[in-house]
Amino acid sequence: MAVNIYLGSNVIKYNATPAGNIAAGGTNVCAAYVGTVQVFDNCAVANTNVQLQYTGNYAGNATGVIVENPLNNFTLAGQPGATGTLTLYTPTYPGSGYTCTSGCPDVNPKSIAYTFPASGTTIINSTRSGGLNSNVPNGTVNVTTNFSGATEGVEVTSSVSNSGTITAAEGSSYSFTITYAVNSGWTGTITDPGGGTSGTYILSGSIPAGTTNLTVSLNATVSQVTYTLNAGSFNYSVTSGQSGVTFTAGSLSPSSQTKPAGGTYTFTQSGLAPISPYQWDSGPITTYTIGGVGGKLLSDTMLSTYDGQDLVPTVTGTMSVASTSSNISSSGYSCSNNACINGNTSQQIWYAGSFPTTIYTNSNLTTAFSGSNQYYKLQGGGSLYINGSGYATYYSCTSFLTLFSNTSYASTSAGACSGGLSDNYYGDGGTLSTSSYIYNGNDGCAGASNGYISDGSIWVQTNSSGQVISTSSC
C-alpha cells in the first residue's frame, strides 16, 4: 500500500520500493509516522553525505552574474547505501547586457546518480562550460580592514576574500568575506560593523562605476593573557644541617610573578647563611623544579604551562661545626704573667670565632671546658682567663722576666741610688732601664710599689702597678 507523507500540500516521501528519503528542505528525516504507524525508519545508522562540486570555470568577464542551480557544494544527507538521482538545471544569467562566449553557460551532466557512502562524504561532479561577457563597463571594488583598540599583526589579525578586490560588470553583485580573530596570547572580543563577534563578516552590494575603495572598521577590546608562577616552599637535604638551627631558612621573593607567555619571570633568593658555630663544608647548592620538572631557574622565560605552579627550591650540602683548635697550659695560674712564664701548652681546646668566647674540649663544640677561674697559657702568646663555665677572656702577658739583684728601693731617686743594693726585683726587659714593668716576684703577678728602684747606676720610677714611668742616671 502506498502512503503519502505531506508537508503542507507537498508530498515529501513516497513509500515505494526501493524506499526513498524523507527530506524537509535539504535535511533528511530518519523516522516518520502516520498516526501511530511508523512508515519510515532510518534512525539506526548515522546519516552520511553526498556533495555536489562543479569543476572547471566559465569564460568571459561577467561570470559573477551566472547563477547555478543547485549551488556549488550543495550537500545531501541520507542513510548509508541509499541511492538517488540529483537533477541539475541550466545556469541562469541576465537576459540583456551580456553576450555568450565559447557557448552559453551550462553544466553537464544534469542528472547524477548517487549512493550514500558508509561514512563521511562522497563528491559528485558536473562540469562547467561556456561563458559570459558583459556589454557594460567593469567596475572595481577594493576592500581593506581597519582596527580600533588594537594593532593588527600584534593583538589581532584579519583577512579579506578575493585578496580584497573584485572587478566585474557595473551593476553586478559583489560579496567579500572578512574574517577576523584575536591572536594567540591575547584575549578579548572583536566587533564587526554588523555588531557581530563571530569572526566572520559579509560585505556585499552592486559594483558601481569606476573604482570604489571600502574600509571595514573593526573594534577590538583585548588584553594580553598572563600566567602566574608562585614562589614555592624550600626543601632541604643537608647533611648535618637543619633549617633554623645550623643555617637560616631560605626564601624567595616576590611571592609570585605574573607575566605573559614569553616574558621573563624573576625571583630573588635569600637566606641559607650558616648560624655560628656551623659552617658549610659543601654547598649550599639550590636546584629548582616547576610542576615536578627539574632544571628550572630563578629567572627564565614564562610558559603558559607554568600558570598556577610553584617554583620549588631544593637545597643540598654538608655542614659541620666551624671550630678553631689551639692549646693551653695543663693547669691554671693566679695571674696572666704567671701562666705565660711558667705554664706549658699541652692541653688542646676548640672554640668558634674569637675571644671572649666559650671554649670546648671537642671539635664539635658540645662539651664546654671546665675552668677554675684561673689563667691558662695560650699557645702562640697571651693567656686565657677561664671561668667555671668555660668562658675564656684573652689577656696579654710577658713570658720571660729578668732578675735585677743588688737593687735598692726608696721613695726618692737619690735614696734609691744611695741605698744598700740588697733587694731583688724582676723586669720584662733585658735591663732595668729598658723594662716596661717591674715586679716584686718572678711570677709577674705583683708590680713594684710607687717609688724608685736603682742598681746604683740608674734609677727607674714605678707607679702602683709597677709600670716604669721615668728613668735616669744616678
Descriptive account of the structure:
This protein is mainly beta. The protein has five domains: 45-134, no CATH class; 138-224, no CATH class; 227-321, no CATH class; 324-395, no CATH class; 402-473, no CATH class. Helices cover 3% and strands 52% of the residues. It has two helices and 45 strands. The N and C termini lie far apart (162 Å). The model is unreliable at 13-20 (pLDDT under 50).
Secondary structure: elements and pairs:
Elements (H helix, E strand, L loop, with lengths): L3 E4 L2 E5 L7 E3 L2 E3 L1 E4 L2 E5 L6 E8 L11 E3 L5 E4 L4 E5 L1 E4 L5 E3 L5 E3 L2 E5 L5 E9 L2 E3 L3 E11 L7 E5 L4 E5 L3 E10 L3 E6 L8 E7 L3 E15 L1 E6 L3 E5 L11 E3 L2 E5 L3 E3 L1 E3 L7 E13 L2 E4 L2 E3 L8 E12 L2 E5 L7 H7 L4 E5 L5 E4 L13 E4 L5 E4 L4 E5 L6 E9 L2 H5 L5 E5 L10 E2 L11 E4 L3 E5 L5 E6 L1
